[in-house]
């Protein structure tokens, strides 16, 4: 998923540096409301976990591998704005210290994985959250299914961010390289498979945390409570 240098031109790279900077500025401002005595240490653990798991690739197709993006996982456990910051920190460290993703493409990578992936993944999780509240007896199973769907959708959406950036400033614009349609088809197909792997890892991780300490799962802590009205 990491975009390397040279896949998009300089103006497009600069555009998405601005987009990423604006998104992270909003996230840093809004994350203050999410960070408390439970979320703050959890955010550090989530960032470390995502960094470690991203080093583990799983096979997708012959010669193609994928890894956890972590957007939905971070958002479900520590909140969307803190999640954006966690994934961004991982991407910045990887780019600066491990040459994983190009420096000129860092804005685009943050936009795709830390902003689009988190926003879409958390949006799906919130939309499905009433199912967890209604089915108390199956809470962990429903939470696992919810986490799987959120991670799958977030991963596919992040890959479509790549396609958008490629359409704006990729080599397809000049017509001398792979067509945009071929890039979109490949990214969609590959990231549906990656999303399934990401969904499984996210579901297992969120379910394990919820089973041991449900109060540490941000999505559950912020769920609306049922209020019984008695005559």
TrEMBL record:
PANTHER family xref list: METAL TRANSPORT PROTEIN HI_1621-RELATED
Keyword Transmembrane helix: yes
Annotated TM spans: 43-61, 73-98, 110-128, 140-164, 184-210
Topological relation to the membrane, as annotated: Multi-pass membrane protein
Gene3D superfamilies: 1.10.1760.20
Keywords of this entry: Cell membrane, Membrane, Transmembrane, Transmembrane helix, Transport
Record-level GO BP terms: transition metal ion transport
One GO term describing the cellular component: plasma membrane
Localisation: Cell membrane
Superkingdom of source: Bacteria
Name of the molecule in the record: Hypothetical membrane protein
């Amino acid at each position: 998923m990491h975009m390397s240098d040279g896949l998009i031109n300089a103006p497009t790279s600069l555009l998405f540096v601005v987009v990423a900077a604006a998104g992270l500025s909003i996230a840093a401002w809004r994350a203050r409301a999410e960070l408390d005595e439970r979320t703050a240490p959890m955010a550090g653990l989530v960032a470390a976990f995502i960094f470690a798991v991203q080093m583990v690739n799983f096979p997708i197709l012959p010669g193609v591998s994928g890894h956890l993006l972590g957007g939905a996982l971070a958002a479900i456990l520590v909140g969307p704005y803190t999640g954006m910051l966690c994934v961004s920190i991982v991407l910045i460290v990887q780019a600066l210290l491990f040459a994983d993703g190009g420096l000129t493409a860092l804005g685009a990578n943050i936009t795709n994985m830390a902003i689009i992936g988190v926003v879409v993944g958390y949006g799906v999780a919130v939309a499905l959250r009433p199912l967890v509240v209604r089915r108390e007896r199956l809470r962990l199973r429903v939470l696992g299914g919810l986490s799987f769907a959120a991670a799958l959708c977030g991963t596919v959406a992040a890959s479509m961010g790549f396609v958008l950036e490629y359409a704006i400033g990729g080599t397809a614009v000049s017509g001398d390289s792979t067509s945009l349609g071929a890039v979109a088809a490949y990214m969609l197909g590959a990231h549906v498979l990656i999303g399934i792997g990401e969904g499984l890892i996210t579901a297992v991780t969120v379910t394990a945390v919820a089973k041991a300490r449900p109060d540490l799962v941000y999505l559950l802590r912020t769920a609306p409570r049922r209020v019984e009205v008695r005559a």
